[in-house]
Amino acid sequence: MTDATPAAEAPPRSAYPWFLTSSSLWLAGMSLQGFLFSWLLVGILERPADEVGIARSLAEAPPLLVLLLGGMLGDRFNGRGYLATMHLLVALPPLMIAAVYQAGVLGYWWVLLFGVLMASLQALADPARQSLISRVTRMDIQRAVTIMIITTSLVGLSGFYLGGRLDVLGLATVLGIQAALFFAGTFAVLRLPSLPRVGGPGPRPGFAAGLSAVWQAPLVRNIIGLNFLSSLFNAGAYVIAIPFIVKEVYGGGAAFFATVMMVFSAGSISSNVVLLAFMPLRRPGRVFLLMQLTRMVILLVLFLQPSLWLFYVAMFAWGLNMGVTTTLVRTTVQELAAPDRRAQILSVLLLSFMVTAPVSSMLLGLLIEHTTPLAALLPGIAVSLVIFTLGMLKSGLWGFESGSPHTARPA
Question: Is pLDDT above 50 for 409?
Answer without folding.
Answer: no
